[in-house]
Amino acid sequence: MLDTLPLLNKISFPAINRKKINILQINLGYRCNQQCLHCHVNAGPNRREEMSHEVLMQTLDFIKYNRIQTVDLTGGAPEMHPEFIGLIEALHQLGVKVIDRCNLTILNETGYEHLAEKLAEKQVEIVASMPCYLEENVNKQRGSGVFESSIKALKTLNELGYGHEGNSLTLNLVYNPQGASLSPEQVQLEKDYKTFLMEQFGITFNQLFTITNVPVKRFGSTLISKKEFKPYMELLQSAHQMDNLDAVMCRYQLSIDWQGYLYDCDFNQMLELPLQKNGKKLHIADARIEELENRDIIVAGHCYACTAGKGSSCGGALT
Ligand code: SF4
Ligand code: SF4
């Protein structure tokens, strides 16, 4: 795999600092039942990295002590972590809002038959990958049969009460471009998704988030091999909007890796740009929240993916 960091480090980005931390994004590990082309984590079925019980407990202590309001679970497929159910139960008991970044197909895998019911029972918000409403495009990016399996999972979630207006079970979908381009306008695309999915499959959902592909790991490496890295960076930089700097997600959240080390965001985690204290990587067990707020964020060329056009974050467009 080709490393994009040396190239990204040559591109300057405006300085930004962290404000108040409201969200902790936890990467539970890199195992996934899929192996998508655009994956910025390089996740897949053969990855074995996963958070230990000890680090999970240290993370829960941090959440409790600092009264973190929202926890965003990611991976790989976070649901494949052996303690996933125990974790969402513990967080629910603490009154923490839990977001599960779900690839949908995991809900149909053997051994995960009751997962969707458990997510509903614990009022977990689902943010599900659905990079297009057309079968051909989804399967091209995410693998053969993924579209059909995703539709089946969405129907199951709707039956459980997810995605219906006025209901407390939230189901948001994520669109990301097929390759080296910017997302279409989020509001219009959401209307198109809603119309198509309802007409064709009777599926409903709450919001669509458009997320820009970030040039790191598998996606970044593919860009270099196809000689698309430079034009893509030029596209992102030419679309940079200063107004988006205020709302980029690293200003309000922290990311933690499967070993317990802290980062400004999931992308900095993948680029191995950790937060540091006294010249050492900062671990969740040693972190004091007051020392993390108002701190400089580590930025480089990849950050233009967050500020290009309407902006991009884990919650979709910024403006
Ligand atoms: S993009 Fe998501 S579903 Fe696809 S391989 Fe990566 S973690 Fe798994
Ligand atoms: S990639 Fe985005 S979220 Fe991460 S540090 Fe850069 S601007 Fe912040």
User: How many strands in all?
Assistant: 10
Largest sheet: 8 strands, mixed
Count of individual domains: 1
Q: What is the overall pLDDT average? A: 94
Q: How does CATH name the architecture?
A: Alpha-Beta Barrel
Distance between the termini: 34 Å
**Which word captures the global form?**
globular
Bound molecules: iron/sulfur cluster
The H-and-E topology, N to C, reads as HEHEHEHEHHEHEHHEEHEEHH
Walk me through this protein's architecture.
- This protein is α/β, with parallel strands linked by helices.
- It has a single domain (5-307), classed as Aldolase class I (TIM Barrel, Alpha-Beta Barrel).
- The protein has twelve helices and ten strands.
- An eight-stranded mixed beta sheet has the order 6-5-4-3-2-1-7-8.
- It is globular.
- The model has no long low-confidence stretch (mean pLDDT 94).
- The chain binds iron/sulfur cluster (SF4) (2 copies).
- One iron/sulfur cluster (SF4) binds next to helix 10.
- One iron/sulfur cluster binds at residues 32, 34-36, 39, 41, 43, 75-77, 103, 129.
Features:
two-stranded antiparallel ribbon, 319 residues, alpha/beta, globular, eight-stranded mixed β-sheet, binds iron/sulfur cluster, TIM Barrel
